[in-house]
């Protein structure tokens, strides 16, 4: 397997306040990688850097062999990164169909394929995004990212705050995406679900990568030490 995304010794600041002190990780084509760590350890900041929404102070981010540190976010997205941001942002006044088609780029993922993955979205085709339930908005946010036909899907807390039955629907969709061979970088607090899907895990503590290895090797000892479980 070849590395699709590589992050090497990433440092990053919010103004004068340093948030990342050496994050390294890699996602190979077709691989699902879990990015783990307690609250405030730097997961979202790492994702903001990968998606070029924030500037790295030092270190290197490369995607498909190209260094993207200085690239603006719209160009990074065009290279094939699909972000589902924390807080499931959709365009509130637009309908489900409009939200999806506005994001479309050529490829296998189109409106029909997204509603086959999330039938609820098809049932709500002409409903405004801001009238959807939280779970439906999350499905729409994932659908929007898929409509860009990404080579890497980045999910930041995709099941946060949702009812158990909806979470299960979203986990089933993520498993289906994995089975299709989509590379995924996954941040989520449901450790059991994440480790059941990811093949590899990266643990952050205070803005640094402190452990990485097979997801199956994240045992109770590691979880106690780094994840507060
Ligand atoms: P959570 O699970 O709570 O989202 P996280 O692992 O994603 O946590 P980050 O949100 O990346 O962590 O936060 C890393 C550090 O950066 C924390 O110390 C946080 O307080 C700080 N930080 C995050 N966002 C900002 C911001 N907009 N301005 C200043 N500091 C920030």
Protein architecture, described:
The longest helix is centred in the C-terminal third of the chain and has 16 residues, at 164-179. The model has no long low-confidence stretch (mean pLDDT 94). The chain has 9 helices and 10 strands. Helix 3 packs parallel to helix 6 (134-147). The chain starts with a strand and ends with a helix. The strands form 2 sheets. It has a 6-stranded mixed sheet, sandwiched between helices. It has a 4-stranded antiparallel sheet with strand order 2-1-4-5. Helices cover 35% and strands 29% of the residues. Strand 7 (152-156), helix 7 (164-179) and strand 8 (183-187) form a beta-alpha-beta unit. The protein is α/β, with parallel strands linked by helices and 229 residues long. The chain has a single domain, classed as 3-Layer(aba) Sandwich (Rossmann fold). It is globular. The structure holds adenosine-5'-triphosphate. Adenosine-5'-triphosphate binds next to strand 2 and helix 1.
Comma- or semicolon-separated keywords:
229 residues; alpha/beta; Rossmann fold; 9 helices; binds adenosine-5'-triphosphate
At the third CATH level, what is the topology name?
Rossmann fold
Count the domains.
1
Strand order of the largest sheet: 6-7-8-3-9-10
Number of strands: 10
Tell me briefly what this model is:
By secondary structure, the protein is α/β, with parallel strands linked by helices. It is 35% helix and 29% strand.
């Amino acid at each position: 397997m070849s590395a699709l995304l590589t992050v090497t010794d990433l440092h990053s600041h919010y103004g004068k306040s340093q948030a990342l002190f050496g994050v390294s990780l890699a996602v190979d084509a077709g691989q699902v990688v879990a990015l783990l760590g307690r609250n405030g350890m730097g997961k979202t900041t790492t994702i903001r850097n990968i998606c070029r929404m924030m500037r790295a102070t030092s270190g290197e981010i490369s995607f498909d062999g190209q260094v993207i540190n200085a690239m603006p976010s719209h160009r990074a997205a065009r290279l094939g990164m699909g972000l589902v941001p924390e807080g499931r942002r959709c365009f509130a006044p637009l309908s489900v169909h409009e939200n999806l088609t506005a994001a479309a780029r050529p490829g296998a993922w189109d409106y029909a394929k997204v509603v086959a993955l999330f039938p609820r979205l098809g049932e709500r085709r002409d409903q405004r995004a801001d009238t959807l339930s939280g779970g439906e908005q999350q499905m729409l946010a994932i659908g929007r990212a898929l409509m860009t036909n990404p080579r890497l899907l980045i999910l930041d807390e995709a099941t946060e705050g949702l009812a158990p039955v909806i979470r299960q629907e979203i986990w089933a969709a993520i498993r289906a995406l994995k089975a299709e061979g989509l590379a995924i970088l996954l941040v989520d607090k449901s450790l059991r679900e994440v480790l059941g899907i990811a093949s590899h895990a990266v643990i952050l503590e205070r803005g640094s990568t402190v452990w990485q290895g097979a997801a199956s090797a994240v045992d109770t000892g590691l979880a106690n030490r780094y994840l507060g479980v």
